[in-house]
Amino acid sequence: MSFVVRMAWRETRASLARLLFFFLCVALGVAAIVVLRSLMQNVRITLTREARTFVGADLVVRSSRAWTADELSRIDTQLTPSAVLARTQMIETQTMASGGERGTGVVRLVELMAIGSGFPYYGTIELQSGQAWSHALVANQGVVVPPELLIELGLSVGDELRLGGKPYTIRGAYNRDRIQRGGGFSFGPRVYVDVDDVKGSGMLGPGSRVMYSIVAQVAPDSLDPLAARLRGNLRGIAAVRDWRTLEDRLGRNLTIAENYLSLVGFAIVVLGGIGVWSVTRVVVQQKVKSVAILKCVGATSGRVLATYLLQMSWLALAGGLLGIGIAGFAVWLIPSSLIAPLGVTSVSITTSAALQGLLVGALVSMLFALVPLLEMRRVKPLLLLRADTAHVARKRDWQTWLAWTLTAIALMAVAVWQADSWRAGAFVSIGLVVVSVGLLLAGRLLVRLTMPLTGSRRFALRHAIVSLGRPGNQTRVILMAVGLGCFFILAVRAVQTNLLEEFTGELGRNAPDLVLIDIQDDQVDGVRSIVKPYVTRDPRLMPLMRARVAGVQGQRLTLNDQEDVRRHGRMTREYGMTYRDYLEENESIVAGQFWSGPLSVAQVAPGVDTEVSIEQEIHVDAGVEIGDRMRFSVAGQMIAARVTSIRKVAWDDAQNGGFVFVLRPGPAVAKMPHSFVAFVETADDATTRGKLQRDLVKAYPNVSVIDIRQILRSVREVIDNVSLGVTIVGAVTLAGGVLILVGAVAMTKFQRLYEAAIYRTLGASTRVLTGMVAIEYGVLGLLAGVLGAAGALGLSWALARYLFEIEWRPAPGLLAAGVVLTALTVALVGVLASADVLVKRPLETLRRE
Q: Which of the residues 297, 313, 360, 821 has the least number of beta carbons within 10 Å of its own beta carbon?
């Protein structure tokens, strides 16, 4: 063992310059994994630690309808004084805010949070003045607002703020509010008022979007059983969540993000592994005579193999440690503004991320180094006397094939581990295997297809093609290294492009400027007349009602009442419904026939009020068929409908028709409680939109105006941040790929020294030699780029279709650019890496040989 250690150290010192590339490949891959995992783990730890603060309580019971006496009785029965330390009510809704006669005159949609005394039970609302939060600030028509709203409306603390047409006194401004909103996306700044002031304000009338909550501070030992009992008693009536549920959800979502980012890190590690393979292959070829000498003096194949395995293992370990150092410097450079919205003030390297990166880096490095090192077993002492036995070292035996197989299996296991998903790991691993096999076959095919060019009259072209097929040349090495590098780079970028396109597409390319919600039936004509002077085209109004499935009488499914619907579990939520006599652009009929025109009184069948078209998921998941009869409860009123068609809805264009149930217009439908939503397009002028909002809020305080342009601006800021992250990850991947490419080409230039010397002796000029190298590497780069792009195309399709379940976009421009850039880069790097070979005087090389 002492011999193995001494020889490994001596070999490392002798080949330090060549092994530096091995070292850097490992470091880059480890740094990528450690940075990505540490960032996500820091965010997850911070968020889950403050989960109670996000909720503001231990337990929240929520409903989109006002509590009935029976529901309150059920809740009171469970929230006993022995289990509950404190409780209160909350109401969340949206309304318009304005400064009355003072301020800028701007009218703004705000999120209204009406809270009871004692809330929040955990955390606090940090006030700009520095004073402690007190419920007295909002009691008796008081309001606390964010400072940006004061700036926008031109108001100050002490001024009057009108909410839904009612006056409130601004008693404070808050700097920080970590309490989560329960109703999804926020359409405006949040303002706090007293719950008793809202109940009698008229802002909770029919059609208003309101969420009612009961929040409680619970004794620690009572939380789990109390939440379980409430979920059982209020199933289908209200949602019950606790701070632990939030913590689990945050942790799970962030873990998924962490694992998928780490899969990108794994791709970078594999790129480094390809570089390790190419370096190790060159080292083995250069050490053939040294190995033969060692065997002549008595060293066994096992000792020789152990020597170089030990050398590679400590280089991998040292590279991993350097990678952790690089990762530490990288997270130090992360700007605080990027992570501040997540509540994280700084990011540090976590122990688990560092250990995982170190382990993955070392494992992948050794896997890629193992196969080339196994060739040393085939080196015989006779090589010192007969150079023609060198080809023996390149033969493949069963042990080599076994090593390749085990390497592939181990890499797949690492990919699955990194992604925490066998599907994601399988997609990447299968893509890697397919592209690798394709590249190996392409290398042989390239030699055969280009053989006719060996008869070309052009010297540079003829000898470049001869060089491609010469035994022992780097054709397969370059194809494998460059092709896999191109495959990973383009695949990562193509998947990211698809994700960003999907996110951007959901915003809608033809989104309206303003959306008016909660328009009552008797307000439609008035709203039309108010907006008419400001719009560029007639506004489109869509009826909207909130309903629950109250029963189904069908061929496969029978649900007699809402209790049966709750037990069935597939249609328990409250649905948004509309009625119309036409299909939207994003809808298509898959079964049945959609109606034309409203339902007349004569067409109404006994026991059925109208017809309904269902989305195909209700047909597949719940078992509702054409011809079945369904009952819906709309604000307590019942309506019966017969299923006459099944639609497929493109949900990413929900602005046009994102409804599970669509009713046929008719006399019974018109009597159901409903409101309207209007989509308004105005001139590109903020003043015009401001005047329109002021006119609407004066005439109809219940109508909420959503400024879509402002929302899109906020969302685009998020997209810009995502794009920045994508660009950074892509840049790291690209840097790794280019580094691998440079190393793979540079590591094979020693083979060209003797050839170049012979060509120069026979009269070839530097220009001719440069042309030969450029043609050879250009052809290799072009083929590697084409195969890598083809593999990336297939992998991006599989990931988009089966893993992310999004629309796949092939991104031909990206792939074509990748092919061209790969070919040009390989040709350029090949020429630059061989520059000293091309200009070196032949005499020195011939004497050494």
A: 297
